[in-house]
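Suppose you are handed a protein chain with no further information: no name, no annotation, nothing but its sequence. What can you learn? This example shows the usual starting point.
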Amino acid sequence: MRIGLLFGVLCLLSIGLANAQDLLVTTGGDSLNCKITKEDDQYLYFSFKQEGEPKETLITRKDVVSYQRAYFAQPDLSAEEIEKVKAKVFKPVKLGLAGGWGYRTGKLVSDNPEQKDYLKGLKSGFQLSADFDYYFNDLFGIGLKYALFRASANGRVMGTQMEDKTTTQFIGPTFAMRFLSFSKKNAFIMNYSAGYLSYLDKGSSSGRSGKLTAGTFGLVMDLGYEAGLSENLAILFQLSAVVGTFSSYTFEEQGYSQKVTLPDDERENLSRIDLSIGLRFNP
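A reasonable first move is to predict its three-dimensional structure. Written in structure tokens, the prediction is:
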């Protein structure tokens, strides 16, 4: 009987401690009845109630005078509310869609002034990208990136009517970083991707048409800022750099196919700069 009674008392005490909330005293003189959910070298993360609504935020350690766990026997927040607000704040999955203007930075490989003017039309165009990121914590994650760039040119070169439509595509895994604001609604993001960069040029000259295809290793770096519009949606402003060159391509025309290897000083540079605006979603 005594063992059973002691076990019952211990159970009641453990339940009481689990439901008890913490005291956090700030340098501003506030004493908060809250639940500290996580702590690291720089921050304390805690849940609290504001105007009847459960919230989750963080505070730097330098702004904390002291804190004591299980200080309040009567909690402001239920265990269900704490779990709900934690899940609400940290959502590991991010989906992004963005688009805008892209500009190829590579040097034009031509000595003919008329042809150079024509090729300038292929240097700028529109681009689209899609990102899937999974974050392990507030800072680091991994993901997958797809990017598309299209440009075209149409005109006469040395008396010949020409047209080219080019498509560059990238796909590859991503190492993702983000730096959240205090409210966790906004964030600076830095993504680094490495993968396959493909190139397609569908062209025509004097009524004859053909296509050029190539593929190479590519790198993409994204620097962006996402501003929260709601709990699950943010607007994204992003600057990206794409890097890649190819030294050989395949040319096809009316059943004829030929592989061409370029000299080192004539390698085709696919590198470009992208300016994008888009949306980021928390599913």
